[in-house]
Amino acid sequence: MRQRQAVETRERIIEAGCTLLRRSGIRDWRALTIRGVALQAGVNERTVYRYFGNERGLRDAVMHRLEEKAGIELEGMRLEDVTGFAARIFDHVSAYPGRPKPPLDPTLSDAGVRQKAALLAALAERTSEWTDSDRTSAAALLDVLWNVASYERLVSEWELDHEQAIETVSWAIKLVTEAISHGRRPGG
Q1: Which of 71, 102, 109, 142 is 20 to 30 A from 48 via CA?
Q2: How far apart are the C-alpha atoms of 71 and 90, rounded to whole Å?
Q3: In Å, how far are 1, 67, 83, 157 from 75, measured between CA atoms?
Q4: Where would I find the beta strands (DSSP E) of 77-182?
């Protein structure tokens, strides 16, 4: 009986953490504190510490639960799994509130508008038989690939040097542009 109650309490704490994230956004973990989760779960903070040791242990348990809910098991992932895993992750994340982005400087905002228009125009000739939705999806993907944030992630998170990051993004862009040139649409 005591063991079952312990399991139920641990589960309630983890679910409380998941609930807090659903309210604040999947990338905003500031609310996921020992105190916040204890309040949400209706337990004492000491109880949360007893099960997870510290805030990092709690957050790791919540992340593991989110991966379970999304149907993701990273250990043993194969190349054939990546597409499905990505789709499941994005499907799961879509249930969370989006984080409002701070407004860009007008110069950067205008540059973004021009870049979108340029990408759509560049695709126009090769995608004249495509739906607007497919054309927009392809242009948007190219926009994501050449986005400075993509380059920065390769350099900071993956520790690629400048040249390797550029080569990697260029390789991905080339794969997408070749697919477009051969009439392969995003959805098909």
Answers
A1: 71
A2: 11
A3: 33, 11, 16, 20
A4: none
Burial of 142 (0-12, 13-18, 19+ CB in 10 A): buried
Distances (CA, A) of 110 to 45, 116, 118, 123, 159: 49, 10, 12, 20, 31
Prediction pTM value: 0.76
- Of all helices (H) and strands (E), which one includes residue 170? helix 162-181
Closest CA to 183 of 118, 125, 122, 116: 125
Determine contact, residues 176/137, Cβ cutoff 8 Å.
no
What is the three-class DSSP state of 3? helix
Of 140, 137, 120, which is closest to residue 128 (Cα–Cα)? 120
Contact of 12 with 62, CB cutoff 8 Å = no
Closest CA to 49 of 9, 97, 15, 98: 9
How high is the mean pLDDT in each 10-residue block of the chain (188 residues)?
A: 91 95 81 94 96 96 91 88 89 80 87 95 94 95 94 96 96 96 88
